[in-house]
Amino acid sequence: MMRLPLFEFRAPRSLDEAVRILDGQGADAMPLAGGTDLLPNMKRRQQVPKTLMSLRYIEELSHVHVEESTAGSRLGACVTLSEITADARFRKGLTALAQAASFVATPHIRNMATLGGNLCLDTRCNYYDQNYEWRKAINFCLKKDGDTCWVAPGSAKCMAVSSTDTAPALVALGARVRLMSRSGEREILLSELYQADGQHYLTRRPNEILVEVMVDSLHGWKSTYWKLRRRGSFDFPVLSVAVAARIADGGGVVEKARIVIGSAASRPLIAEEAAKSLIGHALRADAIVQAATLAGRIAKPLDNTDFDMSWRKKVTAELVTYALRELRGEDVSKERESFTHAHLV
């Protein structure tokens, strides 16, 4: 049985108290929301904070305000994934987020897991996500306790992959996040929270708390999220695609669009060229093929997770195609239901 290491537990009742704790302890302390990722990592000694600071009792982190037409939406970082999945307001423009939240793990885990926790999910790798003794047998890896990235031994940078479901969806929706520390607050695009380094994958500072997620009005937008994994539930994504587009009434011409590829690098990848190719055009078959081809070019997965990496790259364009067909109004429920099983026969 793997046991948790010793740690000090703190349970602040306000944000002010929480930021004071982080300011005093810095990198030795870690915020604890649902704990569905952090606590297993601690058992494997992948993360070993001296202090865990629970966010459970801070009421202002659990608010939900959804308004698609005017003011936009504001979601506290401790809103659970189950709450997002069950709330009928997370539809239309916010559909991608609702779908992404519903695809995370199992109902039991979604009842505990939080939006902020999923956005800050630790990067994953076949050489990193093992118990302590296994990792010690290979002299550890660059991400934790070692000096070699076993995925790319010549690399000076860790290649662990981003496996969050909600981040690609929210990046496609143009989301921003609010970060708070004792020295003040800052607001950044969610895409700016991530960087291309599996070891130092977040730009969040050790003394900052991710407080809130904000999404501007999505009136006229449609969005969707597609996920590839070996099993129909529980598994982390090994590839994902989030697409959002504002489509004009009448002719169905795309006015704005965003396409984001997840789980193909250490951060979500924004397919800017693919999205731009859609603007000014209706979602006809030729436009979809062109966008899917362009999106597939930026996906360069490595051999650090499930499935063959070259096959995962080829599937990227297929996922984008399904997503755009869905935004066009096609019924792709059978393709979505059978996608994983169809590719594993």
Ordered list of secondary-structure elements with their pairings:
Blueprint: E1 8-10, H1 15-25, E2 29-32, H2 38-43, E3 51-54, E4 64-65, E5 73-76, H3 81-86, H4 95-102, H5 107-112, H6 115-119, H7 132-137, H8 166-172, E6 176-181, E7 184-189, E8 209-215, E9 221-228, E10 239-247, E11 254-262, E12 269-270, H9 272-278, H10 285-298, H11 309-328, H12 333-344
Parallel strand pairs: 1-3, 2-3
Antiparallel strand pairs: 4-5, 5-8, 6-7, 6-8, 9-10, 10-11, 11-12
Helix pairs in contact: 4-8, 9-10, 10-11
Could you explain how this protein is built, in words?
By secondary structure, this protein is an alpha+beta fold. The chain has 2 domains: 8-58, 2-Layer Sandwich (Uridine Diphospho-n-acetylenolpyruvylglucosamine Reductase, domain 2), CATH 3.30.43; 59-119 and 162-344, CO dehydrogenase flavoprotein, C-terminal domain (Enolase-like, domain 1, 2-Layer Sandwich). The chain has 12 helices and 12 strands. It has a 5-stranded antiparallel beta sheet with strand order 4-5-8-6-7. The chain has a 4-stranded antiparallel beta sheet with strand order 9-10-11-12, sandwiched between helices. Helix 9 (272-278) runs antiparallel to helix 10. The longest helix is centred in the last third of the chain and has 20 residues, at 309-328. It starts with 7 loop residues before the first strand and ends with a helix. Residues 341-345 have low confidence and may be disordered.
